[in-house]
Amino acid sequence: MMAETRTALIAGANGIIGKGLMQEFAAAGGWRMRALSRRPHPSHEAIATDLTDREATRAALVQARDTTHLFYAALAPQPSLADEDRVNGGMLRNLLDGLEAVGAPLKRVVLYQGAKVYGVHLGPVPAPFYEDDNPRHIGPNFYFTQEGELRARADRGGAAWSILRPDVVVGDAAGNAMNIAMVIGAYAALCRVEGAAFRFPGPAHVYEGVFAQVTDSRALGRASLWAATSDAARGEAFNYVHEPFRWRRVWEKLAVAFELPLGPPVPMRLAMHMADKKPVWERLVVEQGLSDLPYESAVGWSFGDFVFHSDFDLVSDMGKIRRAGFGESVDSVAALVSAIRSLQEAKVLPR
């Protein structure tokens, strides 16, 4: 019997989730993979297109007519929730319509949702978060729109779907505004060059007592391969995070790993406090031969502020995915250290 041909289309391949997916597909074997992104991707047969442009998307997807599995990690941040909903909902719709138009034999779509699906962007939410938490908060929320699109198409006989819900994805993608490893690594480097203590940039009660969580991008890639092929994952949504932690424990270990003096937390806003560090960063770029990514776009300081000032527990229940058959976890500190060191080796972060 001939082996089933599986061709993956990875939308958002330049992003932090997309890069982890590309790495895991390459390591796993047995798949043909193709990157899709707005900016050019260096891989073979990659497709560059703007998913907000319906006609351009359809034309570009002619070369993806063999797609059997779609992994949708594309994201277009917008200034308002309503715009975010309209734009991101439309992007997924344009991509699915385009694949249908070129006759792609699409069997399953794996979609990624963050903790925003539980309303964490609106304020404190009781933890842990369960996949069957009801009722939903009132929209707009583009995750609701995208999930509704997948459900409606499946009900009409289209591709099956699976959803994974990571939180604060840790990886080594450069130039990503939501890369917490880049934030921590850049902050550590700037503390070092100024001879400053490595102080947690958030409130003391967050540092000492609030639970947080992350998801390693490579582990998420492996979970994605499972979600794309498992019968148990068909038509289901799953949280996928690692064990919750308090920031103090993580911060102390990061200080040891990068040989930095530790200090007490300080509740500063990085987006404001690090605004004057451009000359220091540019000097480090020259001295260490780093990539010339502009300081303004190299580090997502505002994302760091969101993470380090979230003053309620962020804990996703992991029971459902484990019972369904995927139980792999990763040490959160090890994931952060690995991602930061990888960014240093790639000359994206200073040492």
Structure summary, number of beta strands:
13
Rg, alpha carbons: 20 Å
Helical run tally: 14
Assign an overall shape.
globular
Your description of this structure?
- By secondary structure, the chain is α/β, with parallel strands linked by helices.
- The protein has 14 helices and 13 strands.
- The chain has helices at 16-28, 54-60, 81-101, 142-155, 180-194, 204-209, 217-229, 247-257, 270-273, 278-288, 295-298, 301-308, 319-324, 332-345; strands spanning 7-11, 32-37, 47-48, 69-72, 108-112, 160-165, 169-170, 198-199, 211-212, 215-216, 236-239, 245-246, 262-263.
- The chain has a seven-stranded parallel beta sheet with strand order 3-2-1-4-5-6-11, sandwiched between helices. It has a two-stranded parallel sheet with strand order 7-10.
- Helix 1 (16-28) crosses helix 7.
- The longest helix is centred in the first third of the chain and has 21 residues, at 81-101.
- It starts with 6 loop residues before the first strand and ends in a 6-residue tail after the last helix.
- 44% of the residues are buried.
